[in-house]
Specification:
Helix content: 10-25%
Strand content: 25-35%
Order of helices and strands: HEHEHEEEHEEEE
Bound molecules: inosinic acid, magnesium ion
Structural class: alpha/beta
Number of strands: 9
Strand order of the largest sheet: 4-3-2-5-6-7
Radius of gyration: 18 Å
Distance between the termini: 18 Å
Shape: globular
Largest sheet: 6 strands, mixed
C-alpha cells in the first residue's frame, strides 16, 4: 500500500481514482446566487419555467430555482447520446419528455455542462418547435474548447478548461454527483 502510494506520488502509477478540486462549494453557491438575480432582472415579473436536463442538472436547478425570486416552476427532460463515443456522435435520443406543454412560456433550459454542444443543439431544436414565448439556456459549466457546433448559453456559471470534471450533479459512471464542489477526475493508470 505504502509502495503504491509512493509510485502514485511520482506520477508513474496511479492506483485509485481521485478528484482534484477545481471549483469550491462556496464559489458555486456565490455564482448561482448571481445567476438567479440576473435571470430575474432579465425577466421582470414573468413566470419562468426551468427545464432541467436529467440527471446532471438536478443540483444546479435546485439551487438556481431557489435564487430566482417570484414565480418559478420546473420540469425535466432526459436525453442520451447514441453510440459508444457518446460525446461526439451527435446523435441524441429523447429518453423522457416534459410533463407539460411549454407553449407561450418563458423557458430556461438548465444544463450541467456545455461540452461539444450537440446535446443542447438537439434539445433547443425540439423545444423551439413547441413555440415557447422565449427560450434561454443556463449552464453551470462551459468547456468552450470542445465546442463542435454553434450553440449559445445565455447564462454561464464558469468557463472551465478541457478536463473531465465531476461533482455537483456531474458524474463518472453515475458516481460523484453528490459532491458539493466540482473537481477534475483522474483515473488509475496501469503499470507497464
Ligand atoms: P455535449 O453534447 O458534448 O455538449 O455534452 C454534454 C453532456 O455530456 C453533459 O450534459 C454531460 O452529461 C456530459 N459531459 C460532458 N463533459 C463532461 C464532464 O467533464 N464531466 C461529466 N459529464 C460531462
Ligand atoms: Mg448531462
Amino acid at each position: 500500500m505504502a509502495k503504491k502510494n509512493k509510485q502514485a506520488h511520482h506520477g508513474k502509477v496511479q492506483t485509485a481514482e481521485s478528484v482534484r478540486p477545481l471549483i469550491t462549494q462556496a464559489a458555486i453557491q456565490k455564482r448561482i446566487r448571481e445567476m438567479g438575480k440576473q435571470i430575474r432582472r432579465d425577466f421582470p415579473g414573468e413566470p419562468l419555467l426551468l427545464v432541467g436536463v436529467l440527471k446532471g442538472a438536478v443540483m444546479f436547478l435546485a439551487d438556481l430555482a431557489r435564487h430566482i425570486p417570484g414565480e418559478v416552476t420546473f420540469d425535466f427532460i432526459a436525453v442520451s447520446s447514441y453510440g459508444k463515443d457518446s460525446r461526439s456522435s451527435g446523435q441524441v435520443k429523447l429518453n423522457k419528455d416534459l410533463d407539460a406543454s411549454i407553449e407561450g412560456k418563458c423557458v430556461i433550459v438548465v444544463e450541467d455542462i456545455l461540452d461539444t454542444g450537440l446535446t443542447l443543439q438537439y434539445l433547443l431544436r425540439v423545444l423551439q418547435q413547441r413555440r415557447p414565448k422565449s427560450l434561454r439556456v443556463a449552464v453551470l459549466l462551459d468547456k468552450k474548447e470542445r465546442r463542435l457546433t454553434e450553440v449559445h448559453a445565455d447564462y454561464v456559471g464558469f468557463s472551465i478548461p478541457n478536463e473531465f470534471v465531476v461533482g455537483f450533479g456531474l458524474d463518472y459512471a453515475e458516481r460523484y454527483r453528490n459532491l458539493r464542489s466540482v473537481g477534475i477526475l483522474s483515473l488509475p493508470t496501469a503499470p507497464r
